[in-house]
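We emphasize that the prediction below concerns an isolated chain of 411 residues; any contacts that depend on oligomerization or on bound cofactors are therefore not represented. The input was used exactly as deposited, without trimming of termini.
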Amino acid sequence: MNYQNLAILSLFVFAYSLIAGRADRTPINGALVYTLCGLLLGAHGLGLLELSVDSAGMRALAELTLALVLFTDAAHADLGVLRQTIRVPRRLLLVGLPLTIVLGVVVGAFLFDGLSLFEVAVLATMLAPTDAALGKAVVTNTAVPPYIRQGLSAESGLNDGICVPILFVFLALASGAVTPEASKGLALMLVLKELGLGLLVGLGLTLLMAYLLRAASGCGWVTETWGQVPVLAMALGCFSAAQWLGGSGFIAAFSGGLLFGWLARAEKEPLLTAAEGTGDTLALLTWVAFGAGVVGNYLHLLSWQVFWYAVLSLTVVRMLPVFLCLAGVGSSTSEKLFIGWFGPRGLASIVFGVIVLNEGLPGGGTIAVTVVCTILLSVIAHGLTANSFVRRLAAGEPSRLARSETDRHDR
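Result of the prediction step, given as a token string:
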């Protein structure tokens, strides 16, 4: 064990925990601070953190963090609002997500001459899902209309699980493991397996564990200290069981969180506290590791094509499909632009990046540096604009959809 790394990370966690509330009210907070500190303390900065982030370790850390964030965010969801405005996340997932991948392929094919069409499709799919952890500052801010918060939360909770089978199909095509003719059957099989098993495991395991927790609590068997553990174990259990059985752990974590939030709606807040704290700590460690062990290793590969793809991925490639797919739902132009802008890239793209690197594609280096650049720009841009854009949105005239929600809530 490297005690120097452990000491520095422990002190950093302690220091940030003291100022977290104050930092949340400034543009410099969360993942931006973690990543920049990791870069500063790592081998390409002061050299104090000697993090050798191998692919397996980075993937495991990012996956567990994402699973906890998805479960706890879903558990906090207002199902009444989500049910009334379900067309927003439905359009974002069923129309906006495919359009984002297609537009990403078009832009990538224009910018990257050295990548095959299927490698460009892999890149576009890796950067299509949004990050629930990076978007937390927006989806937890009550100044944002509830339909936007619930829509963005549902989108980020489900789009990474939807993208997994699509990514595997494009990977198989890019590596030559399957032919385009055979890819249709493979795609259907993967989608049904990933989504079906993910939902089945997430809902089934959560239902069982929530029933056992309530029964044990009713008997007085759960102590105050151990009462902080069950939700944490539930979230990680849903994720890992689904992954073990061949389903999507991300779908399992999000669907399990939704069900738990509904089953335990009267007492869920104290039960979720420990899991949220653990998720925040894991997120801190993930972003520090990303800054210290990943960013510096790829910055020297940066090119103008990579930079412009990253910029376009965060703007036109994301925002145009969102604007188009939300036509006619009752949102104002400013609300559509807000939803389109707050599609940060983070943990899911890190996980996908590790998967792709292990495949050894000819264009793997270009794909990796583009993903790292996009995530880094997202951390900076979305971190700096979250609070100010929320204030601007709150100061504007609410849309017809936002007003109808407010009226319904008042009644």
